[in-house]
């Protein structure tokens, strides 16, 4: 908490003061400088696009004026005013080398040059901004580790299960009826059932409202109770309490007695679905070697690869390099046919989200990029799977197509392999069956709803010529033969659902050293020298989005236009125009007398002022919310009056401009003093 508050205070400082603070605290600055460089690149691209749009509009106006014989001559260099951010920029944007992140975003390198003797920073040709522009100052905050994410998830699940229990109790209350005793004073059969029901409810409540235990201790107790309950069922006993719904069960970290097992897959091949099934079956958190956007989908093991925390770690290596490096003792290779995987990956990179699909309008615009992208990715897909098949470690090959059709069979093989269980027991079989039955549909098994969930549905996006090229690729046919996808090349897409499963739903490959007591090999993951995606296979996603007008809210598809129109209406930008129209209409209509005329005009003016005031308040609220989310600087209390918050923001902006002149203690004291004065003044 202290570190979080300290870093939050540093957000009020300028760039130079931040660096000096890092030096005093003994903190490394590498990560801060990398993030600042990425922000500079983003701002540079935005400014360039704005200038290009201005120049394009000027050319269009010039062409129109030339046609009418009234085109203005351009200013000479001698008479031109000094260039500003909104003027003169090179028409071409050099994106640099795109670095692909897990959520589809990309970052590159932009050279920023500091102007000696000034507070300006040249981030591109003709583009100069202030060194302390808030847009290029990274937000400082303490990193959220996997333990914190797990604590938050378990708190949410505990709250959800209590609500679920209370709802069930209210339902039962409507069916409870009291029966009379018989003449001898003994309870009837219905009374006995009622008593047993009451005892079961009480035991369930005792499990929900435990006292003097932490949530972590509660999760341990519940796991032990699940094992005891399984043994009781084997002996023919009844459940002494109602089970917790699977989606509300608490998760745990668990140590691995050896190097972790790894879940390796090409992107968009079903690793999130597999991780969710594993977590709900074993109640153990799965790790990941990258910080993506899956924490919001309840996959909280981001950047957790240590064997002291997790047993099973997701990776896309060697397709990309995650962080940090770690060793894996066994591999679950999850594969998906290249046609569906590559098309799904295209959607991810274009939308930046795991669940969104590009619109038909954008799909038409991307036709010229599609074939080049597919030919690049098919090479990466082949090299990725070949690399893993060549590793001399125990490997279990499973397919996405089998996982979505027979999740219980495939999951049983995965648990047996990862946990090194010689024979599956009834306990895990029941866990898998219960989770699948609770979710009912395969689309609900994963952490988020997939785009299609079908097999072969993406083939309509491939032209006949492109499909012919892919089917003629002998290397592709060879790799698909290893993965038993050969029949997909011969069948029509509507028959892909009849794809035969792998023998026993998985293929297990033994290592050459298995059985030896002296030799034991592992795989070093995230070794930068072994990546299969080179610069030639990188797709410049930022450049493509820029060319299509998808950056900076410039997309002109029907969906984006509709969203912009809704936002415009919600913000109330047209209030002044409506008020003017009403005022004009009243002025043009002949009133009965001068008094009625004055009353009508005053009424319209009052309504316009009230509406405009309400709009200003709404705009201020939205602006405050956006600033809080994007910059993290305005920690507004829900109990603070709006006008007080606006004053506080104004003072914070003023302090931010002069933050370099204060040390940390002075700055914090000044902020607190200004806030106290504003709060007292408001009261």
TrEMBL record:
Biased composition (Polar residues): 103-112
Pfam families: Sulfotransfer_1 (PF00685)
Stretches the record annotates as Disordered: 53-112, 567-603
Name of the protein in question: Sulfotransferase domain-containing protein
Domain named Sulfotransferase: residues: 307-421
Composition bias type Basic and acidic residues, residue spans: 53-62
InterPro entries with a match to the protein in the record: P-loop_NTPase (IPR027417), Sialate-O-sulfotransferase (IPR051589), Sulfotransferase_dom (IPR000863)
Family: Belongs to the WSCD family.
């Amino acid at each position: 908490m202290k570190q979080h508050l300290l870093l939050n205070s540093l957000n009020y400082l300028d760039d130079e003061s931040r660096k000096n603070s890092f030096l005093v605290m003994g903190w490394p600055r590498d990560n801060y400088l990398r993030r600042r460089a990425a922000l500079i690149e983003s701002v540079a691209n935005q400014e360039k696009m704005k200038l290009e749009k201005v120049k394009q509009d000027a050319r269009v106006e010039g062409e129109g004026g030339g046609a009418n014989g009234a085109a203005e001559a351009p200013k000479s260099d001698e008479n031109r005013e000094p260039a500003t951010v909104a003027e003169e920029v090179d028409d071409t944007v050099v994106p640099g080398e795109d670095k692909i992140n897990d959520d589809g975003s990309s970052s590159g390198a932009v050279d920023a040059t500091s102007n000696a003797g000034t507070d300006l920073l040249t981030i591109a040709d003709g583009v100069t901004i202030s060194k302390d522009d808030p847009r290029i100052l990274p937000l400082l905050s303490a990193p959220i580790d996997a333990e914190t994410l797990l604590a938050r998830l378990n708190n949410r699940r505990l709250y959800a299960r209590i609500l679920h229990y209370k709802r069930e109790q209210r339902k039962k209350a409507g069916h409870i009826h009291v029966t009379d005793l018989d003449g001898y004073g003994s309870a009837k059969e219905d009374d006995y059932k009622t008593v047993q029901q009451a005892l079961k409810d009480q035991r369930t409540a005792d499990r929900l409202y435990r006292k003097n235990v932490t949530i972590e201790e509660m999760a341990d107790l519940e796991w032990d109770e699940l094992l005891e309950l399984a043994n009781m069922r084997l002996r023919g006993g009844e459940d002494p309490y109602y089970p917790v719904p699977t989606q509300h069960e608490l998760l745990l970290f668990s140590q691995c007695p050896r190097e972790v097992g790894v879940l390796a897959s090409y992107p968009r091949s079903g690793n999130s679905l597999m991780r969710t099934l594993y977590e709900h079956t074993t109640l153990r958190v799965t790790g990941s070697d990258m910080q993506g956007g899956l924490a919001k989908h309840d996959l909280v093991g981001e950047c957790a690869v240590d064997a002291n925390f997790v047993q099973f770690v997701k990776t896309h290596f060697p397709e990309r390099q995650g962080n940090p490096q770690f060793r894996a003792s066994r591999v679950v290779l999850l594969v998906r046919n290249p046609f569906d995987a590559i098309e799904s990956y295209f959607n991810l990179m274009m939308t930046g989200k795991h669940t969104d699909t590009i619109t038909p309008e954008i799909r038409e615009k991307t036709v010229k990029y599609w074939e080049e992208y597919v030919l690049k990715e098919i090479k990466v897909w082949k090299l990725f799977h070949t690399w893993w098949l060549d590793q001399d470690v125990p490997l279990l090959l499973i397919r996405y197509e089998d996982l979505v059709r027979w999740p219980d069979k495939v999951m049983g093989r995965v648990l047996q392999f990862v946990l090194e269980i010689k024979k599956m027991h009834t306990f895990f079989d029941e866990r898998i069956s219960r989770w699948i039955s609770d979710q009912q549909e395969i689309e609900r098994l994963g952490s988020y709803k997939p785009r299609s969930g079908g097999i072969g549905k993406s083939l309509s996006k491939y032209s006949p010529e492109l499909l012919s090229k892919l089917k003629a690729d002998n290397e592709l046919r060879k790799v698909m033969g290893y993965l038993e996808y050969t029949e997909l090349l011969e069948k029509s897409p509507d028959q892909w659902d009849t794809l035969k499963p792998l023998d026993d739903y998985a293929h297990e490959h033994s290592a050459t050293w298995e059985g030896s007591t002296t030799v034991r090999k592992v795989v070093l993951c995230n070794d930068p020298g072994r990546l299969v995606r080179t610069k030639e296979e990188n797709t410049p996603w930022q450049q493509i989005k820029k060319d299509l007008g998808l950056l900076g809210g410039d997309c002109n598809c029907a969906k984006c236009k509709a969203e912009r129109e809704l936002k415009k209406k919600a913000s109330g930008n047209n209030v002044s125009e409506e008020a003017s129209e009403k005022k004009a209409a009243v002025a043009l209509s002949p009133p009965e007398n001068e008094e009625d005329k004055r009353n009508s005009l005053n009424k319209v003016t009052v309504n316009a002022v009230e509406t405009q005031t309400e709009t200003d308040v709404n705009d201020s609220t939205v602006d405050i919310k956006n600033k809080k989310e994007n910059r993290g600087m305005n920690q507004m209390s829900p109990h603070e009056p709006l006008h007080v918050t606006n004053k506080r923001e104004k003072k914070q902006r003023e302090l931010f401009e002069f933050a370099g002149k204060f040390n940390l203690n002075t700055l914090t004291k000044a902020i607190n003093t200004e806030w106290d004065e504003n709060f007292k003044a408001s009261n």
